[in-house]
Write a structure and sequence with these properties.
11 strands; globular; alpha/beta; two-stranded antiparallel ribbon; 231 residues; Stationary-phase Survival Protein Sure Homolog, Chain: A; nine-stranded mixed beta sheet
Length: 231
């Protein structure tokens, strides 16, 4: 298989290096030059996009994660068979998939009929991420999903949990996206302004959904479908 690796935290982010480790150094990295967390499916069309080739297998793109996939599939590696995005520092669960640049990268790949896996790491109460453990878990998930059937217009969204450091083994649980909104909590400031004060870990969750599975300490795996398929 020919992998494209990307993210939304930037090409120098530790999560991307963990993802490379998870696939044994395989693949071509086409990732944003800068941090683009929360950019959703934003694209760059009104200015030139600079592409910096750092090595035979690594390209830094002065654009968004979706720009990276468009450029990768049209210019750098049109024969790619799998797009991997992550490992994002922070969860992308339920409603988050509509905001996330990490997820947008594999959603764009799905539009090109290329399978994709977005991998994110939930952060519990500002605890430091163990990237070695994350790479190990990501490797297990990728190995499992790359052999799963994935019809056109679908992609996988994966969220790693954040238990304490003593935990090395967790279950991989296939589950649905949570349907609950993110907390809409705001603090009133001066001059009629508001500051967001919602707590990610206190979000509502559907029982058995990706939020519930991940917050309970297991790897949440969800297949997202972009359009309905004819029978």
């Amino acid at each position: 298989m020919t992998f494209i690796l990307t993210n939304d935290d930037g090409i120098d982010a530790p999560g991307l290096r963990a993802l490379q480790q998870a696939v044994g150094g395989q693949g071509i990295v086409v990732a944003p030059l800068q941090h683009h967390s929360g950019c959703s499916h934003q694209v760059t069309t009104a200015r030139p996009i600079r592409v910096e080739q750092r090595s035979d297998y690594e390209y830094a793109v002065d654009g968004t994660p979706v720009d990276c996939i468009r450029i990768a599939l049209s210019q750098i590696c049109p024969d790619a068979t799998l797009v991997l995005s992550g490992i994002n520092a922070g969860g992308n669960l339920g409603a988050d998939i509509h905001i996330s640049g990490t997820v947008a990268a594999v959603r764009e790949a799905a539009l090109y009929r290329v399978p994709g896996i977005a991998i994110s790491h939930y952060i519990h109460q500002r605890r430091v991420i163990d990237w070695q453990r994350a790479a190990n878990w990501a490797s297990l998930v990728i190995d499992k999903l790359r052999h799963q059937s994935s019809p056109a217009g679908r992609f996988w969204n994966v969220n790693l949990p954040h238990p304490d450091g003593s935990v090395t083994e967790v279950d991989i649980v296939f589950c649905s996206l949570c349907t609950q909104p993110l907390p809409a909590v705001y603090q009133a400031l001066e001059s009629g302004t508001l500051k967001y004060a919602g707590e990610y870990g206190k979000r509502a969750r559907d029982p058995g959904s990706d939020v519930d599975v991940c917050f309970s300490g297991n790897i949440a795996v969800t297949q997202v479908q972009l359009w309905n398929h004819r029978e």
